[in-house]
Fold each of these.
Amino acid sequence: MINFEYLRVSTPKAAIEALSRDNTSQWIAGGTNLIDLMKKGVMAPQKLIDISNLPLKEIKKEGNKVHIGAMALNSDVAENELIQREQPLLSLALAAGASQQLRNMATVGGNMMQRTRCPYFYNTDLPCNKRQPGSGCGALKGFNRMHAIFGASDKCIAVHPSDMCIALAALDAMVLVNGPKGDRRIPFTDFHRLPGDTPQKDNTLERGELIIGIEIPDNPYRKNVHYLKVRDRSSYAFALVSVAAAMDLEGGTIKDARLAMGGVAHKPWRLSEVETWLKGKSVSDAVFREAAQLAMRGAKAYGQNNFKLKLAPNAIVEALKAATQKT
Ligand code: SF4
């Protein structure tokens, strides 16, 4: 473990100013990922600016949107009555993530900022372009069972590990950001990025930009929703594949749908084309199977994760079935 300075701030303005004064500093909230990264020597900030006490914990309805502060705890959001009533898909996804102890510490903003769990990224003796650009990707021809089947590059095939973010991508959430240049709103699907030639960049935030909160627009997805997470241990493990499914049904017809996948790409993988295709179709296993095949267009596996090419479409079918069967 390295030595570092510790500073606690109480306003977003103080947090942004403190970070801009020192290039070696880093914000910390729940610390459920950053502390691991520091222990392993992957990250070595010389100053930690504790933002966990910022007044950004509120969960409230504002007009026709639900606003969630960036410092709200994952467990508080998952168990919140407003979220369970109006955005149940988010509650289900949060409950599927990590363990109760971790959910009690992890914040919404921290969940979005967590790094990949690729084992090469965490081992400083091994090559990893995300940790050390230009060093190579150990996973490409190595241990890649957990890795991406969509949107990867020859520089990085890692996946984003969050469950919460998969639901937020499906629900058209907006990320509210404040920074040295003022406020910015980022559509959730544009917040995380694909690796391309710069896998060291997980998201589109600029240095010094602080996540203030997220907004979820009102939607009709209050009943027919399901979050399916396929993992090695049901108690606590990252997703091999996950599917967030939300359906707006009228009789046996799909009026509208929202679908996103986790465990398959460097960012939450929204299935917009499949959503459009599903509109107006009847609820049936055959339709769901066809939707799943459409979702798999362009998928590519890397050896140990070949099984995901079968698991992913099966998971989509099961999630759609489970969502439509809720009464
Ligand atoms: Fe590093 Fe990405 Fe390759 Fe993993 S997949 S070793 S994170 S470059």
Amino acid sequence: MFENGIKPKIIVANWKMNPVSFKEADNIIRTVKNGIKISENVKVVICPPYFYIPNIKGGKSFDIGVQNIFWEDSGAYTGEISAKMAKEMGVGYAIIGHSERRMHLGETDAIVNLKINSALKNNVKPIFCVGESQKERDEDKAGDIISNEIEKGLAGVPSGYLVKDLIIAYEPIWAIGTGNTPTSDDIMSMALLIRKVITKLYDRKTADNLPIIYGGSVNDKNATDFVEKAGMEGLLVGGASLNASEFVRIVNLF
Ligand code: PGA
């Protein structure tokens, strides 16, 4: 993460359960590979559905991530895929604790914690998602929700991993896929709160160096503001990452 002393911005594409054919996936990858300027200022991570991974080679242009992993390495867990298997396939990153999984798949903070620990053990970097719902925000509970998700999610994680291998993605649930986004001030205060929690759990240095990225309705128009005005160290891009030329424009902004 600190190659040549430069801390690159981390731009993650979360394709979710899209696109429905390999042909479309291949088209996106082709456009991204041809379009993005390779730069030490940016690290691009593409997280496609598992099926497409063997046909996608990142190489110099980008790294590959998965959108979920199971917490055991192998065993009688029908339908699951482990961090160990992901690593075998050349995967370097795993999105863990995305709100859609918390919502639709019943993922709890305890499960998220097991997955984070398993990913780290297998040298897969977790992109650990936290975020509040609209209701929680309206009730002024956002800070408590985020603090709690971080404390529980990171239980048992040694400090050495935090700066080197872990990324926290602040993704307000109300901003995902809605076109609504927080202000730069809102994002900055949430990042400050995240660093306070990390300082309490670990120490100030760890907190200051931990990469925090933003996700939720990122597009090629607002991407620069999240990084330059709100001070985010990267972006988690959902919908806009399926529009290959828009994703290329986002990456090339940095
Ligand atoms: P969005 O999704 O960019 O479509 O809002 C972001 C995410 O859920 O990671």
Amino acid sequence: MNNIVKIFDTTLRDGEQSPGATMTSAEKLELARNLSRLGVDVIEAGFPAASPDDLEAVKRIAQEVGNYEVNGHTPVICGLARTSKKDIDAAWEGVQLAARPRIHTFIATSDIHMQYKLKMSRDEVMQKTYEMVSYAHSLCEDIEFSPEDAGRSEPEFLYQVLGEAIRAGATTLNIPDTVGYTTPEEFGALIRGIITHTPGVENCTVSVHCHDDLGLATANTLAGILAGARQAEVTINGIGERAGNTSLEEVVMALNTRHPIFGLETHIDTTQIMRLSRMVSNYTGIVVQPNKAIVGANAFAHEAGIHQDGLLKHQQTYEIMRPESVGLNQSQMVLGKHSGRHAFKNRMLELGYNLTEEESEQLFNRFKNLADKKKTITNADLEALVSDELYQPREIFAIDGLQVACGTMGMPTATVRLRGPQGEIFTKAAIGTGPVDAAYKAIDAITQSPNQLLEFTVHAITEGIDALGEVTVRIEQIDSSHTKTTQTEREMRRTFGGYGADTDIIVASAKAYLAAVNKMLVANEALQAAANTHQQTAPQSA
Ligand code: KIV
Ligand code: ZN
């Protein structure tokens, strides 16, 4: 049996289904580029039938990342589709321009999903699987099939459905534990059963896709791999529906660190893991918990005296992995105030940012401003500048000025000046419980977009008094109209993440908040446009 585990990254699809994780298409493209540099074998770029925006993002990734070789390897670009012609056509439209396109189609196979959600019998599901996998295969060579909720499906029935998918042309069989219900023993046994009993499985790759509802996603994925699966579906930081998906960094580092147990390899360059983790956190606004394995801020921090003493005597007393192996503690001092455009551009290239002239110039100016305030600029600072400067959502409102007064002597007050969509200038002042609250109130008074602040996180990127501060926020829209349809209401309650970086923490906070508000306004525009189109095309009642 082959000893490579293919890493299938679904951060851009299942990961983006996390509440509030919506990314702009520029962010998605940049993330896909960096996933390719990380060495993932397959990038699930999106669900093209979900919206025109998703389709466009998948197309761009297919064209720009799916035709670009990095370290002798071009990733497969995959689009998700339900087992319907419309979805499969959209997925094919999305991925067809990639050098190595894949369509991933799925249908539920658990009794509970078939009876209540699909209202289909087992025979109908088998027939649909054969028909739609055949159809997808008539368009695209490389077909992946998933029996959704496989973890709760009857194994004998699964063997039959998977057999139909293989007969119709599927070459990757992905086994999802959709609701994160199974235990490692059960999931391993399920994979072993599939490999033993499914007709034609010997010519296919068996894949595992686990959710973390019971905190078992990584354990289940590893059990599946031990049972013979050779593709793992994962996301960076484990983001995804509900409790999330299996995290890429955990699976890859488990396979590396416990190599004698698994005897398996991946194509991942593990030294890029921290960068990707920060990038995903910045773009989605989803903060990584400090004690998260591998990428949490405390994952390599040693507090107890006994541990510190042990470490100083021998690193392996308390560290099973070297921080450098995931990209921590690498030489950070890169540029300073006297660095020129050339050095700057080279450094950005080394960090994986292939900037246009215009972007490079825009960023270089920001870098110079920062270098005036801060002696040394690290890689993490540069990455923060990229997120803050280039990958912000479309700006409906932009900050034109901000001033705060705070302290113990009076009421915290903020005056905010924003540039509106037509270039008009709005100025408002507000009082708050602190300067950030006051600034947010002033922004609310201008943007008139009611929301609730769910999360606010601030942290210094580097040490020292001159550190660049990063702020991540998550907001939830408050719908005051009461006239929406159920579907729209649900969408209206979506959450939005925002990110901002600056040496002034209040400015970073205002930027992060405005970025989230802008994302919300853009999403509302899109919803409104979709509702208008629907009204125009819906048959009129007499
Ligand atoms: O969790 C799941 O079942 C999925 C499928 C679409 C593979 O994400
Ligand atoms: Zn999933």
